[in-house]
Design brief:
The complex is a heterodimer of chains A (544) and B (715). Chain A has 544 residues and is α/β, with parallel strands linked by helices. Chain B folds into 4 domains: 49 residues, ADC-like domains (N-terminal domain of TfIIb), CATH 2.20.25; 267 residues, 3-Layer(aba) Sandwich (Rossmann fold); 205 residues, 3-Layer(aba) Sandwich (Dimethylsulfoxide Reductase, domain 2), CATH 3.40.228; 113 residues, Barwin-like endoglucanases (Beta Barrel), CATH 2.40.40.20. In chain B, 29% of the residues lie in helices and 17% in strands. In chain B, the strands form 7 sheets. In chain B, strands 5-4-18-17-16-6-7 form a 7-stranded mixed beta sheet, with helices on one face. Classes of the chains: A alpha/beta (544), B alpha/beta (715). Bound molecules: flavin-adenine dinucleotide and iron/sulfur cluster. Chain B: Keywords: 4Fe-4S, Iron, Iron-sulfur, Metal-binding.
Chain lengths: 544, 715
């Protein structure tokens, strides 16, 4: 599969690439294309419906939660020298025959190559009273969360809201629920499935998560849905659940998944299913039109997540700028849609899932589970031999174990060698041993002064040879004369030696070490006395 | 009694030399950097003066193929004749010079002049390219000037927080740790390192009572980590907007660029838990003067810099410091911890392929005119820009037929060292100036014996930009001579149009004139002046000035006085993990040794402390590979294999192995490292490559490892 990327641009007019949608994926595509297109073979234009500067959509949950300043989400503006950016303008129709796109402001833009990155919008299910159909508008204070405007409106309502209902217990719904709770609004999450985050989690982990959410003050109701949205004078007042319960609410967030924005493509007669249908080279049924991101239905599925959209953006940009790239393109396909890593971004909850879950593991897989509901922890690991027989981490569900989740992500992403016993993966830092620092308990061979390589044994020997103060020990062994960091330990040793032996060098300089009584329990060397200590002269470094 | 400084690292600890039976003995001296401390290397430094295999006579490879002693006249005449022949056949650029960051300012200056006017070659560079170039490039780009620490080291003690990225100072410069004491006591030390190095251990609660943070980032992800910290600074509203508005340009670009590095993405890439990232960001921000703290300092070392995106990584560190409003404020700022003894001065006076003395650019006509004026030559005679070290080594045996090596042991210290060895053996002429028969000297056609630190006068510029005096305590052995004398003689034999002085104080005066008006201005300094001040003086020190301990308090060195913030994009390691090479190799130093070990491996006490190379690996990985502590382990990349004993420790990530790079032979780490370089600085990626690791007796397809060098050299 090749894309016929032009080999050379010499003398030719640049090819016009028109990108529709300035969301996370369209933005990334433009950036990668401009970066790779060193000899300016392409003239790039970007059309985006939202009026804002491009922003990081996935951080909207953090903004909603008051965890992130708005300043932290603006993305770099496309280089004005390379990209013409039409902001706050929507594409309303594509005329494929003449190769132009009609814009909402009445103008048209011609293209040689069209890239659709129109993304998705929140899906609002047909619930009575929600007003999704044509009879009447949506009651006030019912929202979705997809855009910066949505986020602002919800945050504004949250100031006065007394109780919020979130319909949908997926990742986004839970992030939003935690965010609202953080803003002080009591929240009930309603989910039709038997447990929250059913797409990613098995029941045991989901139950621990629900308990953790309850701790944070987020109420979760599962196995039921909203039967009716009740409003008075167009203002939301409550929702009635399918089990008959009524929950008073003056703020509602509908978070029931997304639908791809495909109207433009459908109107142009392109093949559209749940998304714009594209092949492995991200090309639609028209070879001049590509689709990437949430609006695209690639052979791998429609995960609705950022990472795969970014991979597509990068893949398409490279196919257009690197003539040799196309052949390898198929190999860059990431994990299957259902196996993409997902993290719940909410203060107080640390949850990450990736790959195979425990319930779908094969009989030959090793599955390690840590179940600690009372500690609000649950970890499932799935380990499977790869085609070379090396065990690899193919699935992770990690809740409440922040210390290890980053390590597990690395092992999953980079396929690094696993411990023989995968249980070790559950230990933070791979199980770093504690080292004893008490001068009394440490073994004689322990290095006390790293700078000068002086061991406890050396210090004890110096003391026995008459060095009864830190200064004297320093003079004999050079301990403490580098960074000085071991001074406390040397002090401790000297104090302990002096205390453990009344006939110390200070009080009786004439007493040789052999004359002093020694019991194993108090022996500075733990039972044996060493004489093989190198004595060093402070003014003449030994050369032997 | 002679007051001088340690010959090794850039801390340049003060020491006193006293005549003794064996020559001189060393005692530490109270100096601002070491406060009376010395590490084991410093204590034993006098041993190298009396190394049993010191070279005391010039050697030329004779008919027999062995290096044979000859007279100075013969040796220099031979060198001059060979240089003439090569240049006549292949042009001036066919002879190259490879310098070192351990040479005094005087020698570094003279070497640059020698290359440009006596050899008239554009091909000169130095081993500082391996250690300082990325930080230098980033510093120049951001601040308009590159001085490792733009403030005295002692300022660090006043800070509430210190972020150390990729630097193991507790092993490489132990006395420096004294300056971290107060910060550690406040729990303010943050160390980024894949290993629980001696420095990372300084953050352990048990070691300080307070406990700092150790961020154990995956090798090659330092930049992502820094971008993640900056993201948090923005997200949590911790940036010093007033400072940014008044003193920087480019903040808007940088702020937007970090919108792409939100915490959980960064945690995923770096392997550092999100909670630790958040704590680190707040620790630094709370310490910043703008938020009422006593100060915060960001420091980088080779771990952050020796990458193909090293310049950008340092830039990210600088951006973080600028966003917090640190540079130019009390007990605050960004700094890079220079490694080699004169790594700072070595890069200021003309050893770099594109620079003339005073940190002037060789392609700047004004700079050429000024320096040519001092040298008394026609500016048009000066060659143009050369190429950075790795590229230069790549030309050996090809475009470059003859090579002078001064103060460097490239056969051990260059990346992909086996390839360097192959290319060096293709040379028509290799001249090595050294005081011991290092690995590179053993391959030379001509070896010229030179003086060591305690046998010469000169100046060094330490990691703070403090210029200090190196003083002579005893005479050199045998016929060893200073490079200043050698270069002067060779220049004469090559009919150099410029004269070469030999007295260090006179050479320094010339250097001072050449640097006048440059970025690193030494024109207010002289040996006599430095002798009069006990603690040295900081450059820039134009005539009439008392030097500049603290830079940037009012303005940065760009014409508009502002610091430039540049948005960066992290790159992946050039040689990243593969299914058959699933482990990262990182390299570094141990306390007892210095650089290629040519000096420290000749000190018995240091060899006792650290006798041989090793491979540090985690017990999990060791068990997987059926490796026991002490087993020989083979570490292999497409470039070569190194075999060394296993040292099993939980102090390293399970996906990473560590090797020190001080040893030649079978355990030579640089046989394995990658010579991919940073596109801006030319610095090679020593600090990460993908390897396979196996017990040596099980390792299949072992690349042929070089035999340890055994050649005898007559003394
Ligand atoms: C609050 C929130 C949190 C999320 N968290 C995560 C997460 O943690 N991890 C993750 O992987 N994913 C997350 N997602 C999903 C992620 O944001 C999407 O997968 C990603 O944004 C898809 O990018 P896109 O560019 O394809 O679509 P979008 O970002 O939706 O962008 C499409 C853009 O195109 C514009 N557009 C549409 N039609 C037209 C037209 N006709 N003319 C012009 N412009 C048009 C739209 O206005 C929009 O700006 C989250 C989503 C939200 C809302
Ligand atoms: S090697 Fe460095 S730290 Fe050690 S004594 Fe010498 S200058 Fe000081």
């Amino acid at each position: 599969m090749t894309l016929n990327a032009p080999e050379k641009a010499s003398g030719q007019a640049p090819e016009k690439v028109l990108v529709i949608g300035a969301g996370m994926v369209g933005h990334r595509f433009v950036e990668e294309l401009v970066r790779g297109d060193r000899d300016q073979r392409y003239a790039v234009e970007l059309v985006g419906e939202e009026e804002y500067e491009p922003y990081n959509r996935i951080l909207l949950s953090d903004v909603l939660a008051g965890r992130s300043d708005l300043k932290a989400i603006s993305l770099p503006m496309p280089d004005p020298g390379r990209v013409q950016f039409w902001r706050g303008v929507a594409a309303s129709a594509i005329d494929r025959e003449s190769g132009v796109v009609h814009l909402s402001d009445g103008s048209t833009r011609p293209y040689d190559r069209l890239v659709l990155a129109t993304g998705a919008r929140a899906f609002v299910p047909p619930v009575p009273g929600l007003g999704v159909s044509d009879e009447g508008g949506q009651p006030r204070h019912v929202h979705v969360l997809r855009t910066l405007d949505d986020c602002r409106n919800i945050a504004a309502r949250a100031i006065n809201a007394k109780h919020a209902v979130v319909l949908g217990g997926g990742v986004l719904g839970l992030e939003a629920a935690c965010g609202l709770r953080r803003r002080g609004v009591p929240v009930t999450v309603v989910d039709l499935d038997a447990h929250v985050m059913a797409t990613q989690l098995d029941a045991p982990a989901a139950h621990v998560l629900a308990a953790q959410l309850a701790d944070l003050g987020v109420d979760v109701v599962t196995g039921t849905s909203v039967a009716e949205v009740i409003s008075a004078y167009d203002e939301l007042v409550a929702v009635r659940l399918t089990d008959g319960r009524i929950v008073a609410a003056d703020l509602m967030l509908v978070s029931c998944g997304v639908r791809a924005n495909v109207e433009l493509a459908r109107g142009a007669g392109l093949d559209v299913d749940r998304g714009v249908v594209v092949d492995a080279t991200l090309t639609s049924t028209d070879p001049r039109v590509h689709a990437i991101g949430d609006c695209a239905q690639a052979p791998g599925g429609m995960p609705g997540l950022l990472a795969p959209g970014w991979r597509q953006a990068e893949q398409l940009a490279r196919m257009l700028t690197e003539p040799t790239y196309a052949e390898e393109a198929d190999e860059t396909a990431g994990p299957a849609a259902s196996q993409e890593p997902v993290r719940l971004k909410a203060a107080g909850v640390d949850l990450v899932t990736m790959g195979v879950r425990a319930s779908t593991a094969r009989d030959t897989d090793r599955v390690i589970t840590l179940s600690d509901p009372a500690g609000r922890r649950h970890v499932d690991l799935v380990v499977r031999p790869d085609d070379r027989g090396e065990p690899t981490l193919v699935g992770v569900t990690c809740l409440g174990a922040a210390d290890v989740s980053a390590t597990l992500s690395v092992a999953f992403d980079r396929r690094t060698p696993l411990p023989v016993d995968p249980l070790a993966l559950l230990l933070p830092d791979g199980g770093r041993a504690e080292e004893s620092t008490s001068p009394v308990r440490m073994p004689g061979s322990t290095t006390v002064c790293r700078c000068n390589g002086v061991s406890k044994k050396d210090i004890v020997a110096a003391w026995e040879a008459g060095a009864g103060t830190v200064e004297a020990i320093a003079g004999r062994t050079r301990a403490t004369t580098g960074c000085g960091g071991c001074k406390d330990v040397v002090c401790g040793l000297v104090d302990w030696l002096n205390a453990s032996d009344p006939a110390s060098p200070l009080s009786d300089a004439g007493t040789g070490p052999a004359d002093r009584p020694l019991t194993d329990a108090t022996s500075p060397l733990g039972g044996g006395r060493s004489t093989d200590v190198t004595q060093r002269n402070i003014t003449a470094p030994s050369t032997s | 009694m002679t007051r001088t400084h340690c010959p090794y690292c850039a801390l340049q600890c003060g020491m006193t030399l006293t005549p003794s039976e064996e020559g001189v003995s060393v005692t530490p001296r109270d100096f601002p950097t070491n406060r009376g401390g010395l590490c084991q290397k410093g204590w034993t430094s006098a041993d190298v003066l009396r190394a049993p295999d010191r070279i005391t006579r010039p050697l030329v490879r004779g008919e027999s193929g062995d290096l044979e002693p000859v007279s100075w006249d013969e040796a220099l005449a031979y060198v001059a004749a060979r240089v003439r022949a090569i240049q006549a056949a292949h042009g001036h650029d066919a002879v190259a010079v490879f310098g070192g960051g351990g040479l005094t300012n005087e020698k570094a200056y003279q070497l640059g002049k020698f290359a440009r006017v006596a050899l008239r070659t554009r091909h000169i560079d130095y081993n500082g390219r391996f250690c300082m170039s990325s930080a230098a490039a980033a510093g120049n780009r951001a601040f308009g000037v590159d001085r490792g620490l733009p403030f005295p080291l002692a300022d660090v003690a006043g800070a509430d927080a210190v972020l150390l990225v990729g630097s193991n100072v507790a092993d490489t410069m132990p006395p420096l740790v004294q300056h971290l004491g107060p910060v550690r006591a406040k729990g303010g030390l943050v160390v980024v390192d894949p290993r629980h190095s001696a420095t990372a251990a300084l953050t352990d609660a048990e070691s300080t009572g307070a406990g700092g943070l150790h961020l154990r980032a995956l090798p090659g992800t330092d930049q992502v980590l820094l971008l993640g910290l900056l993201h948090l600074v923005v997200a949590d509203g911790l940036a010093d907007e007033e400072y940014l508005a008044a003193r920087t340009t480019g903040w808007d670009d940088v702020r937007r660029s970090v919108a792409l590095w939100w915490p959980d993405r960064v945690a995923r890439v770096t392997g550092v838990p999100e909670a630790l990232l958040r704590r680190a960001a707040h620790l630094l921000a709370d310490a910043s003067p703008a938020r009422g703290g006593a100060g915060a300092v960001v420091l980088t070392g080779r771990g952050a810099e020796q990458h193909t995106d090293g310049t950008d990584t340092v830039t990210a560190a600088i951006n973080l410091a600028l966003a917090l409003g640190l540079p130019g404020r009390r007990s605050s700022g960004y700094g890079c911890l220079t490694g080699q003894g004169n790594g700072q001065g070595g890069r200021e006076h003309g050893q770099k392929s594109d620079q003339l003395p005073g940190y002037r650019m060789i392609d700047d006509p004004e700079a050429r005119a000024h320096v040519a004026g001092v040298w008394g030559v026609d500016p048009d005679l000066l060659p143009g820009k050369g190429v950075p070290a790795v590229e230069l080594l790549g030309k050996l045996g090809g475009e470059v037929r003859g090579l002078f090596v001064h103060g460097a042991n490239v056969l051990v210290s260059a990346p992909d060292a086996l390839a360097v060895r192959r290319r060096i053996s293709e040379l028509d002429l290799l001249v090595v100036c050294d005081f011991v028969p290092g690995e590179t000297a053993q391959l030379a056609d001509v070896v010229l014996p030179v003086t060591q630190w305690a046998e010469e006068e000169g100046t060094m510029t330490n990691l703070e930009g403090r210029v200090l005096r190196r003083r002579k305590a005893l005479d050199p052995p045998g016929e060893a001579r200073s490079e200043l004398d050698i270069l002067a003689d060779l220049a004469r034999l090559l009919d150099s149009p410029a004269a070469f002085e030999t007295d260090p104080a006179t050479v320094f005066d010339e250097l001072a004139r050449a640097s006048a008006g440059g970025r690193a201005d030494y024109s207010g300094l002289s040996h006599a002046r430095l002798d009069a001040v006990e603690e040295g003086l900081f450059w820039p020190c134009p005539a009439g000035s008392d030097g500049t301990p603290r830079m940037f308090t009012e303005r940065f060195a760009h014409p508009d006085g502002r610091a430039r913030m540049v948005a960066t994009t992290p790159g992946a390691p050039a040689d990243d993990l593969q299914p058959d090479r699933p482990v990262y190799l990182i390299t570094g130093r141990v306390l007892a040794h210095y650089q290629s070990g040519a000096q420290t491996r000749r000190v018995a006490a240091l060899n006792r402390a650290s006798a041989e190379p090793f491979v540090e690996l985690h017990p999990q990985l060791a068990r997987r590979l059926a490796v026991d502590d002490g087993d020989d382990v083979a570490v292999t990349s497409p470039r070569g294999t190194a075999v060394a004993r296993a040292r099993i420790t939980t102090g390293i990530r399970p996906d990473t192995v560590f090797m020190p790079f001080h040893w030649p032979g079978a355990g030579m780490a640089n046989a394995v490292t990658n010579d991919a370089t940073d596109p801006i600085s030319g610095m090679p990626e020593f600090k990460v490559c993908a390897v396979s690791v196996a017990r040596a007796d099980l390792a299949t397809a072992l690349h042929e490892a070089p035999r340890p060098d055994t050649e005898e050299i007559p003394a």
